[in-house]
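User: quick one, fold this
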Amino acid sequence: MVKVASFGLAVAIAALALPPAGGQPKPAAKPGPVLAWTEATQDPAAGRIPQLAFDGKPDTYFESGKAAARGDQFTLAFEKPVTVKALAVATGRPDGQHALTDGVLEVSADGKDFIELAKFTDGTAKGKPQRPLRAIRVRVTGDLAHPLAVREFTVESDPPLTVFRYPVHFVVDVSDAPDMKDWAHRTARLCERHYSMICDELMSDGFTPPTVIHMALRNDYKGVAQASRNRILGSAKYFKDRPNDVGAMVHETAHCVQLYPGGKGNPGWLVEGVADYVRFYKYEPVRPKPFAPERAKYDGSYQVTAAFLAYLVEKYDRELVKKLNAAMRAGKYTEAIWKDLTGKTLEELGRDWKLALTR
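Assistant:
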């Protein structure tokens, strides 16, 4: 669950790098992998979610829930342009069924206007655009007697694209608030794009995160948002009034990944603090302002506990949140874990944090 937060999405502004004292310009950092997302005109068949078409595994695939018709599309889009040197799309199931024959592979420089690159032959299409693109699209050109099955996009680009290491699909329900449809779908796609980051931060041995998450908005829900297992419920009124508070849904998505067992003694302040740590220190482009010392209570929950965890991560152990998460997921959390991880008790760490804020 989340409380009302004053932090919303912010625009990240890149600062110009000043040349060092020697007068030589600082070498530009090599761009990191670019996030992608998927869009399909048809809902998926059970277990055949869209991100399976770009997970780097040839035996997984997206499949539509019903026969594909002329004009149906499947799109892989990118957060920013990448120079695509070569690409290939394989369709059909691994056993060869449902390969696409009536279809074209299209590319777009802006994510809006598409041009044809190649036709599908025997279920595959290839091309070498050799230019910056924002999206790649499979478009069906004739009515099919079978579903659209897209097995894998293979994209050679600079910078590279990040494949979906933890494929997920958000099912959106806005039947109670149809005017929030566009907001809900945009937010769901954003949570999908950042799902790999959330899973990396909250991964533990032997754990498999949910592959389907249900997100619903209700007019009669009086809180902000809450999560239970793989279901998120949000207030239509709250998000209508505060459409920029998308981070609240990132927080709830973190809860869906935490999946702690009930009745195991995990403290609520820490459960919420971990989810807000993922939100404010891994997702939000601008970190929260430092807390006043009088507010610095390690068990203050939400943003307060998140700030405490961020302090410990910097001072003691980069993997501290991941280790706490693993212990809570295994039902093995006790207060002794703090001394095991840092050499200090929880109370001592709380006092140190408060003192650090006065300096």
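User: anything notable?
Assistant: DSSP finds nine helices and twelve strands in the chain.
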